[in-house]
Amino acid sequence: MELIYLIFNCAYLLTNYQLRVAAIAAIGYGYMGLICLTLFSSLWLLRWLVELTQHHTIALDPRQLSMLFGLGTIATFWVYSPSPSDREIQRHDFPELFSSIDELSVKLNTPKVHHVLVNYDFNAAISQISQLGWCGWQRNYLLIGLPLLQSLTPLQFTATLAHELGHLSNHDSIFTGYILRVRQIWEQLEIDSNLVVFQWFFRWYEPLIKAYSFVSIRDREYAADALAKRMTSPEIAASDLIQTYIYQYYLQEDFSRQLDRQAQSSETPPPDVVTQMLAALRQPLDPQTAQIWLNLILA
Questions:
Q1: SS3 assignment, position 115
Q2: 167: DSSP letter
Q3: pLDDT truncated to tens, each residue of the chain (299 aa)?
Q4: Do residues 36 and 11 lie in contact, with contact meaning Cβ atoms separated by under 8 Å?
Q5: To which H or E segment does residue 128 belong?
Q6: Which one, of 183, 188, 185, 189, lies nearest residue 207 by Cα?
Q7: Edge-to-edge strand order for the sheet containing 124-130?
């Protein structure tokens, strides 16, 4: 009986939490709707004032009014999301990589990855860039950091790919996507728009939606990890995560200090930082040191 009570209590808390997060996200969408309604009302008020001062009725076709309203709304809520500026790679240059992406995309039932880019970050990511602002038409970018690629085995990198593509998969939470979209819209509006009505609302809304949606965002990462495990194996997915965190710690705590010492002993910065980094990532780490770092990370 205690187990049944615990299950029902957890289900109630989860449902209650999701309802609260959905309500807070709805506030973000609702505020945008309120601004749209205000714009529409302003058009009618402007028409009424012109009729009142000019003493004649303005014959305005409803379709023209709708068009004006639509243009005003788009101009107000237009968010510009620049495409990543990293180097794009092509299928004919790296056929094995694109073959792996295609295979995982089919298995995970993901939309098309339109662009694959490489950079010098120790990271991999999926980025969805809207071509029409908040109106949609997403383009999917897969970003791959060369240092990360250098530190992983092919099977571990497959787990990383599966994790990132899992964020595009139909298996990914629709509810979490709903939360993420409103967060991204308002973050972009805060950057692109100087309107007081946006700045004032964002200062109140941004910490609220981030705090309440934290669990959903983490759940999204766990779901992507589960897909990575399913596409490879639990052992490979786990070793991928461990390897990534250990080498990230190595770059922050060890390699960066080596660069600092080089910079202090020379009048000019080291000219081959990336080359040194990639060479260092090719070398195996001392097992005892790696275990110490892993324990620090887990703590």
A1: strand
A2: T
A3: 444 444 444 444 456 777 888 888 888 878 877 877 777 777 677 777 776 777 666 665 666 666 666 665 665 555 555 556 688 999 999 999 999 999 999 999 998 899 999 998 899 988 877 655 555 567 888 999 999 999 999 999 999 999 999 988 855 555 666 777 778 777 777 766 666 767 788 888 888 888 888 887 888 889 899 999 999 999 999 999 999 999 998 988 888 888 888 888 888 888 888 888 888 888 888 889 889 888 988 88
A4: no
A5: strand 124-130
A6: 183
A7: 87-88, 115-119, 138-145, 124-130
pTM over 0.90: no
Most distant pair of Cα atoms in the chain: their distance: 88
The set of residues, in sequence order, having a beta carbon less than 8 Å from that of 159 and lying 6+ positions away, is 228, 229, 231, 232, 236, 237, 240
Q: Which residues pair with 124 in a beta bridge?
A: 144
Q: Which two tokens stand for residue 221?
A: 């990462």
In degrees, to the nearest 5, what angle opens at C-alpha 177 toward C-alphas 209 and 102? Answer: 145
Helix axes 174-192, 2-54, angle to 10 degrees: 40
**Amino acid letter, 215:** V
- Do 39 and 66 form a contact (C-beta atoms < 8 A)? no
CA distances from 87 to 118, 125, 146, 152, 279 (A): 5, 14, 11, 21, 21
Length of the chain: 299
Q: Which two three-digit tokens encode residue 25? A: 């996200």
Beta strand pairing call for 138-145 and 87-88: unpaired
Antiparallel, parallel or unpaired: β 87-88 and 115-119 = antiparallel
Separation CA 168–CA 170 (nearest Å) = 7
Alpha-carbon Rg of the chain, whole angstroms? 25
In which residue are the tokens 């728009």 written?
A: 193
